[in-house]
């Protein structure tokens, strides 16, 4: 009973602390969403309003993480091929979110780039987005039919190995392919 009385007599929460916590939580949420500028701004507000040093110290650690990500995102690549290699390296190390961001940037520069579409299809497959993977791989193969041979032995597509749609992409019916060429006049 004494514990209940002590809890009721506790001083009301400091409004500055409540505001600082809100900014801190907003910053963490933005950081998880990879919105680094927004996260940094919220965390800086948390530091400015925090009445205690521990919250400010934690916010400072997260600001350092934001700064690191912001530096990485402002990388400049000499060629699209070098940028693609960087995206592949991110994918190979398991940083799928960052890899996807770089593939999307590359596609904005050249939406029909066969090798970027192929890399994005592999990423979709690795992350379990099977429909997106099949669609994007189909676009890549349409842009460069030779990619179907590469995909046949690519371990990144092992999640699709048993899918009949994947098999149809990689081993098209020759009659269907010839009739498609006749219809479009392409030989």
Architecture overview:
The protein has 187 residues and is mostly helical. The chain folds into 2 domains: 14-73; 80-178, Tetratricopeptide repeat domain (Serine Threonine Protein Phosphatase 5, Tetratricopeptide repeat, Alpha Horseshoe). 74% of the residues lie in helices and 0% in strands. It contains 11 helices and no strands. The protein has helices spanning 2-8, 15-32, 36-49, 53-73, 80-92, 96-109, 114-126, 130-143, 147-152, 164-170, 174-184. α2 (15-32) packs antiparallel against α3 (36-49), α2 packs parallel to α4 (53-73) and α5 (80-92) runs antiparallel to α6. The longest helix is centred in the middle third of the chain and has 21 residues, at 53-73. The radius of gyration is 25 Å and the shape is elongated.
Report the helical percentage: over 70%
Question: For this structure, what is the CATH class of the largest domain?
Answer: Mainly Alpha
The first-to-last residue Cα distance is 89 Å
Characterize the overall form: elongated
| Low-confidence parts | none
Biggest sheet layout: none
Strand tally = 0
Indicate the CATH topology of the largest domain. Answer: Serine Threonine Protein Phosphatase 5, Tetratricopeptide repeat
- In DSSP terms, counting alpha (H) and pi (I) runs of 4 or more, how many helices? 11
Q: Quote the average pLDDT.
A: 85
CATH architecture of the largest domain: Alpha Horseshoe
Topology pattern, helix = H, strand = E: HHHHHHHHHHH
Quote the beta fraction: under 5%
* CA-atom Rg in angstroms: 25 Å
CATH superfamily of the largest domain: Tetratricopeptide repeat domain
Query: How many domains make up the coordinates?
Result: 2
